[in-house]
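Researcher: Re-running this chain for the archive, since the previous output was lost when a drive failed. Same request as before.
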Amino acid sequence: MSRVLVVEVIGILWLWVWIAMVEAEYVKYKDPKQPVGARVKDLLSRMTLEEKIGQMAQIDRSVASPAVMKTNSIGSVLSGGGSAPLPEATAEDWVNMINGFQNGSLSSRLGIPMIYGIDAVHGHNNVYNATIFPHNVGLGATRDPNLMKRIGSATALEVRATGIPYVFAPCIAVCRDPRWGRCYESYSEDHKIVEDMTEIILGLQGDLPANSRKGVPYVGGKKKVAACAKHFVGDGGTTKGINENNTVTDKHGLLSIHMPAYSDSIIKGVSTIMVSYSSWNGDKMHANRELITGFLKNTLKFKGFVISDWQGIDRITSPPHANYSYSIQAAIQAGIDMVMVPFNYTEFIDDLTYLVKKNVITIDRIDDAVGRILFVKFSMGLFENPLADFSLVNELGSQVLMPTIWAISVVGGQLHGKDLLATTIQGEPPSFQP
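Model: Regenerated structure tokens:
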């Protein structure tokens, strides 16, 4: 064999090796040019059962750490009850804390980013120096959907300023009894007004693209956040207004009064929906397969993920946590995809793993749950931009984008308005004639 031929053969062999290396390095789920559905399918095919179940857990920041995130493949972290990294934490403090958790997630075998969530029901209300807007009951009185959209945009910007991409808002309860202590979270007793106010979702998440399909989550960039419509469904209709209690009504009453705002939220691309602590005709919502899987997912065609409330699955039993394995089984089979644990995540992961390995819960149900979680993460660009930066920190408490908030008073039988927000910012206490 001539020297030239040997060189050519070696060259061809090296070319084959190089092609094989390139092909080996290419991972479809990491390619943003691929359709989201293809990326979800590819990533699911690579995940172990333990990694899938880890994605279904949302834990409180107080028990999170980079090591916990990496070891358990935790899907989400939240700040519960005003929990913050430091007293009077700055936007930079928030970004640094969240990026620390995120770096733990990114260092795991598959590098699946976690999603950090926080309540933001009237502005970024758990964060020091953030702008606080009136409660929903006051905003509903404005009858102004465009105002809601502008408030959503302002809130999203301030939430993103602290490095957070996910908010547990809006609350779209329809308060039917003023004895309910959380009526202030409801825009109105009139379901049509509550439907109109879901315009806040477009402010939080961004306007839907022209070709968007119904029920598909959408988040329009790094200045927008994933929203969460809550609490599904009927939390404002409990008997005598008793909180977290029983809503007694027939299916027509439930669907005509309490459900329409959820249908509107889904049409507007809401990313997630949170389940209510309350019951419907004696059946706990956290275990209601007919409404979560049957109606929400199958009839309304919701494609995002369903999340529990804080320790919501524990409360399926009375007393809470009396039979946790059963509660997990009932909740997951009902159609809940992500569980707000928030502390005993190892118990949740171990029990759910056992139930799947014993074929009590099918792997198809797990894949549906994890697929929905991944779909939201891919759709909002979390895989491409998992880490927050400091570029928006000056937007926290910014007055530039504040929408006008009108306080309404009745004088002489006529409505009068005053720019309450601008007045408050300038330090002058609002006052009205009786």
